[in-house]
Amino acid sequence: MDRILVTGGAGFIGSNFVHHLVRHTQASVTVLDKLTYAASRESIDALPSSRVELVVGDVADPALVDRLVGGTDAVVHFAAESHNDNSLADPRPFVHTNLVGTFTILEAVRRHGTRLHHISTDEVYGDLELDDPQRFTEQTPYNPSSPYSATKAGSDLLVRAWVRSFGVRATISNCSNNYGPWQHIEKFIPRQITNVIDGGRPKLYGAGLNVRDWIHTEDHSSAVLAILERGEIGETYLIGADGERNNLDVVGQILRHFGRPADDFDHVTDRAGHDLRYAIDSTKLRAELGWKPAYDDFEAGLAATIEWYVANQAWWRPHKAATEATYAAKGQ
What 3-state class would DSSP assign to 239? Predict the structure, then answer.
C-alpha cells in the first residue's frame, strides 16, 4: 500500500496514526480533515511534506472524496464527531459526519475498488454493569445510548452492508477509550491534566465510579496497521489493552503525579445517560494477527501523557479558557 488516505488525520487518534505510518511504513499519506475545533494542523506539521499532504475538506463531499480515493491504495476512515456531550446538545453534526460521511466514503471505495478500514468505538455496544465480569466481544449486540454512539453504530452497519451487498473490501475495528498526545482538552484525561497544570482542581462526573478501558493511542495505531495489512476482509476486530480504570482512580493518579492529594478534586453534575463501564476483549486481534500493546502499563502510559501536556502548553493553552467556560455553563 504505497498511497494511503487517512480521513480525520489531523484529529487526535487520526494524527497519531499518521505519525505511526510515517515511522513504520514507506507509504505516502494524504490527510483529509475538515479542521473542526477538535483537529489541529500542528499535530502533523512536523511530518515531512514529501510523505504527508493535508487536504482541508468535508468527508461528506462526494466530489472531493471521489478524487482523493481514486488516487490511493487504501483508506483508513477516522473522521468522526466524537464528543458525547456535544452530541447531546446538537446531534446534527454527528449524523452528517458519522453517517453521511461514511456513506460517502463507502460509495467512493466501491467505485474505485479501494481497500477500506473503518474506525469505530466500543460505545456502540452500550455499557456493562460495574460488577459484570463480562467484556465486549465481536459478538456483543449493539446497544448505543447517545447520539454519538448511535451514529457510530449506524456507520458500522453501513460498512457491513456495503461489504455484503457490493463486495467492498473493508474491515472494522472498535476500540476502547484512547489517551495520549494531541488529544483536545475537552476530553476527560487531558482536561484533568491541564486543570492541575494550571493549579486548579480536576472535575469528576458524579461519584467517579464509571469505568473506561484505556488504551494508549500508539497501541491503537499499531493495531489498526496490523488490521489494514493482515486483517480478513469483512471482519471486525476489537482493540483493547486491558486498561480498565474508574474515573476516580485516573484522577487520583494524575494528582499523585503532581504531588497532590488523591482527593483534591471537585464533583460536578453527572453527564445525562453516562455509561457505567466499557471493557474490551481483544483476544481475536491478538490470536489471529499477533498484535499486542506496547503500553500494557497504564500508569506508565499516563505518566508519559502528562509529561507531553506539560511540555506542549503552547498547543493546548489557547483553547483552555473557552473549554472551561463551556463546561462551567453546564455545571461541569
Answer: strand
Contact 188, 247 (CB under 8 A): yes
> What is the DSSP code (8-state) at residue 277?
B
Residue type, 47: L
Percentage of residues of the chain with pLDDT beyond 90 = 89
Residues marked as catalytic? 122-123, 148
Domains and CATH numbers, the chain: 3-178+215-239 (3.40.50.720)
Cα–Cα distance for residue pair 219/221, rounded to 1 Å: 5
Task: Work out whether the CA dihedral 95, 101, 103, 104 comes out positive or negative.
Answer: positive
Q: What is the pTM of this model?
A: 0.94
Question: pLDDT tens digits, residue range 33-67?
Answer: 999 988 999 999 999 999 999 999 999 999 999 99
Distance, CA of 119 to CA of 117 (rounded, Å)? 7
Furthest CA-CA distance within the chain: 58
The string of DSSP letters for 63-131 reads HHHHHHHTT-SEEEE------HHHHHH--HHHIIIIIIHHHHHHHHHHHHT-EEEEEEEGGGG----TT
Kindly report the CA angle at 63 between 57 and 64, in degrees rounded to 5? Answer: 30
As a whole number, mean pLDDT of residues 163-185 equals 97
Q: Are 256 and 263 a contacting pair, CB within 8 Å?
A: no
Q: Which of 15-24, 55-64, 155-164, 294-303 is predicted least confidently?
A: 294-303
